[in-house]
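Explain this protein:
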Amino acid sequence: ACILLSPVCLADSPAAPREFEIELLVFQNLVANDGGEIWPIDYSEWFEESDDEYAKNDAVTAEVNWLPEETYRLTAERNALSRSSQYRPLAYFAWRQSVLDRTQAVSIELPGKDSNSAGAYVDGSVRVAVERYLHLYLDLQLHTVVSDEQLELLEFDIPEFRLTEHRRMRSKEIHYFDNPRFGVIAL
């Protein structure tokens, strides 16, 4: 009886979530010419209500294992950006996690770095989900650091440079996300 019913029992058991290693290399574009683009100042956080259908679900927690630097696979790209006069690497995040479907996937808050010698840092959240394909959801913000003296000279608040994007991914392929002020190389 067990042998005959085993396919039925296996069909009802939930599939174990697949694990993926995700790497994000975030860099700043140092070319100041935006071609006349005007950057708005976003005050929406002041009035924001949490109506996100994928807001953090208390019942589901993402198991995230941050990877050591010696396992990074985008180091050649990071080194090339470091040598460039037009770009500056800001952050490198690499972790392993179990990836759930879109309705159960939770956002991972990236650890905000303190301002570095570049005078900028990035923070935000990333959500990885799997359905038929792997999907990556980015919501990152570039923070430019100005001194108190520079802040007094500004007529307006510092604009927000935000990258909010979603893309279908393929495993083991490099993907590129960009904004005129910063970009992300994802693997």
